Amino acid sequence: MRNYFGALYRFTTALPHYEDVTRADAGQLRFMLAGRGHYRFHDGHCMATPDVCLLGPTMGSTSFTLDTPADVWGISLLPLGWVAIDGGDVSRMADRLCDMTLEQGAAYAALLDQLRASAADTAASATGIWAFLEARLRPVPPAMVSFVAAVDAWLANEGSPRVSDLVAATGLSDRQVARLTNRLYGGPPKLLARKYRALRCAVKIAIDHTPWQDLCDAATFYDQSHFIREIKHFVGLTPHQLMTDPTEVARLTLQRRDMGIAMAEINRIS
Question: How confident is the model at residue 87, as a pLDDT?
Answer without folding.
Answer: 65
